[in-house]
Design brief:
Elements lengths: L3 H4 L19 E2 L9 E7 L5 E6 L4 E7 L9 E5 H4 L12 E9 L2 E8 L4 E6 L8 E8 L6 E4 L5 E5 L3 E4 L12 E2 L2 E2 L10 H4 L7 E8 L2 E12 L2 E11 L6 E3 L1 E4 L6 E4 L5 E6 L11 E10 L2 E4 L3 E2 L17 E7 L5 E6 L13 E7 L6 E8 H4 L2 H5 L5 E9 L2 E8 L4 E6 L8 E8 L5 E5 L5 E5 L3 E4 L12 E2 L11 E8 L2 E10 L7 E9 L10 E4 L7 E3 L5 E5 L13 E10 L2 E6 L3
Parallel strand pairs: 1-24, 14-18
Antiparallel strand pairs: 2-3, 3-4, 4-5, 6-7, 7-8, 8-9, 10-11, 11-12, 12-13, 15-16, 16-17, 17-19, 20-21, 21-22, 22-23, 25-26, 26-27, 27-28, 29-30, 30-31, 31-32, 33-34, 34-35, 35-36, 37-38, 38-39, 39-40, 41-42, 42-43, 43-44
């Protein structure tokens, strides 16, 4: 399809390609009913009524009714496997009904369903009511589950099921008119990317729960798939799109975080909604049915509207503390208690990746109101050695520290290499002088001063070296800090902070696929000594990526945040997250605080 997102996925910090979009007035999604319900599915009736069903006990198809998607009737059992089942009870293993869906097709209500032992079937209401009674239309397939009906604009009806299988039905709806075929999608293969091979090569929309929807000539095939994001396995909803019902379909992309198996329907005011059951520990409605308004942000690109928060925890509903664009934010404290923030700027061309050679500084007295201090460094005006390496150098990830009665800022260059500048006045705004190059390669440099006064240079994925007293270079050969299982803490953005007597080593890592649908998380490991051994890494701040931890004037632990993946609460704006730190069986456990 001719769609920028599908053909060439942009960097995930691009707002127009995000799966979740930010709204200051967004509200948390809520359960529809207070009853656990797997595979929740809703359809719209002809009188603007809504019918909800899903997997309950495996023996009954229950239906709830609503006129407004808010107030629901008590459930009605419209079909019983025990009382009315015939062929459904055949075969080996325990028989059970799963993933029923009510659809209104060809002027009648139908219930599609799967069997726990495999196979799919169809029921038709013999009245004008979604509450039945229903007659058994027989077995549709001997394989698969998660069946649904799709009626195209030409009146043809299709059987959709399993992991994206499709077949046109015969006219009397008693069976399939053709052999089911699998919908195949394009693999993620984009030059220059380092995506996880297990996701690059997939030719399926997902693993189960296929559902087809059509809008403005675009077919959208949805499927559920298990997907590890934020270090936690959940079931997300993926979609691929096409202009032809049989394809070719686009690359798949994540459409609804924690959505699992979904159904789309037209709701009030012609708004598109997705019905689903929350899947995974980060879902606000885990195990319960919910609906979320969906929107086509561009042709072929569907996502939830900006009005909702889908993810639980302090990060899910996080709001920016300021409205200026920034990446890799870092906060430190000056000698008078003033907080200073710096980070990757998009100046002067409003582009984080093209000649952004300026270093800007902001200050705050309370971590909430931030004021621009100055442009304290500009490679085009102040740079020296940098301009001999790169024709148009980009300045990335600056970090500030107050040492020896003045301010120091270390920074990185796009393409590799790190540098250091020093304030001549002792003031944060400078002027600064160039202290030269710190490393010839790598990026994301940081300073840490230990309680004994020793200063360390930390960079990239956990590399470290103690500094000379005069800050002119390293006093020892660099080494690399690893976790006790031999794994690195993260691949970039390494830093160290000391809290409750423990050394916390942090860094950014992609969980899931890199720069497509994965999450850019802040990982951490803990040690009693600066050189380790460090505990196995854990997720500290979901979506936190290249943030850095700092301690405020009251001794509380925080992390900076800027958003850099498709499901982050916002992107490229400064945020801060208060952290809790408590001992558990694996050491110091750091989590975002809900305070």
């Amino acid at each position: 399809m001719e769609n920028d997102f599908i053909i060439q996925p942009p960097h995930p910090e691009t707002e127009w390609a995000a799966c979740t979009s930010y709204s200051e007035n967004a509200v948390s999604i809520e359960r529809l009913i207070d009853v656990p319900l797997k595979d929740a599915s809703i359809c719209t009736g002809p009188e603007h009524s809504y019918y909800l069903t899903g997997t309950v006990d495996g023996t009954n198809v229950l239906v709830w009714t609503s006129m407004d998607l808010k107030t629901w009737t008590e459930p009605v059992s419209v079909w019983s496997l025990e009382l009315e089942g015939t062929w459904q009870k055949e075969g080996t293993g325990t028989a059970g009904i799963c993933a029923p869906k009510i659809r209104y097709v060809k002027g009648a209500f139908w219930v599609t369903y799967g069997l726990s032992q495999g196979g799919t079937g169809l029921l038709r209401s013999t009245s004008n009511s979604a509450l039945g009674p229903y007659e058994d239309m027989g077995k549709m397939t001997t394989d698969g589950q998660d069946a649904s009906l799709f009626e195209d604009e030409d009146g043809a009806v299709y059987w959709i099921y399993s992991k994206g299988l499709i077949a046109r039905m015969n006219e009397d709806m008693t069976g399939l008119a053709e052999v089911p075929r699998m919908i195949e999608v394009q693999p993620w293969k984009v030059a220059g990317r380092e995506d996880d091979p297990s996701y690059m090569g997939t030719l399926q929309v997902g693993a189960y729960g296929a559902f087809l929807y059509k809008k403005d000539g675009t077919y959208a095939m949805f499927c559920a798939d298990r997907f590890t994001r934020m270090g936690s396995e959940a079931v997300d909803t993926f979609v691929a799109v096409s202009h032809s019902i049989y394809g070719p379909y686009s690359r798949r992309y994540l459409a609804l975080p924690h959505g699992g198996q979904i159904s789309l329907f037209d709701g009030p005011e012609h708004q598109i909604y997705a019905s689903f059951t929350g899947s995974g520990e980060y879902s606000l409605v885990e195990h319960y049915p919910a609906v979320v308004a969906m929107t086509f942000a561009s042709p072929g690109f569907i996502r939830p509207t900006e009005a909702v928060v889908l993810e639980k925890g302090a990060v899910g509903g996080l709001k920016p503390v300021a409205d200026f664009p920034i990446r890799d934010p870092h906060i430190s404290t000056g000698p008078d208690g003033t907080y200073y923030m710096t980070g990757t700027s998009d100046k002067p061309h409003r582009n984080f990746w093209d000649r952004n050679n300026q270093l800007h500084l902001w200050r705050s007295s309370d971590l909430q109101e931030w004021h621009h201090v100055a442009k304290v460094w500009d490679l085009s005006e102040n740079g020296s050695w940098e301009n001999h390496i790169y024709k148009n150098p980009c300045l990335w990830a600056p970090e500030m520290i107050y040492l020896y009665e003045t301010f120091w800022i270390t920074y990185s260059l796009q393409g590799g290499g790190t540098g250091l500048i020093k304030s001549l006045s002792g003031d944060a705004e400078g002027p600064y002088i160039d202290m030269g190059r710190m490393t010839n390669t790598d990026i994301d440099s940081s300073f840490f001063q230990d309680s004994d006064g020793e200063v360390y240079f930390v960079w990239q994925d956990g590399k470290i070296a103690r500094m000379k007293k005069n800050m002119t270079g390293f006093a020892e050969e660099p080494r690399k800090l690893l976790c006790s299982d031999g794994q690195r803490v993260g691949y970039e953005g390494a830093f160290i902070v000391k809290y409750q007597g423990k050394y916390i080593l942090g860094a950014a890592e992609w969980n899931g696929d890199k720069r497509v649908d994965g999450t850019y998380d802040l990982m951490y490991a803990v040690a009693d000594h600066i050189y380790g051994p460090y505990t196995p890494r854990r997720v500290g701040v979901p979506h936190g990526g290249h943030g850095t931890m700092f301690i405020d004037r009251d001794g509380r632990l925080w992390s900076t945040f800027f958003g850099n993946d498709r499901t982050a609460p916002f992107r490229t704006r400064p945020g801060i997250v208060l952290l809790d730190a408590e001992e558990d069986g694996q050491g110091l456990c750091i989590t975002p605080s809900c305070e």
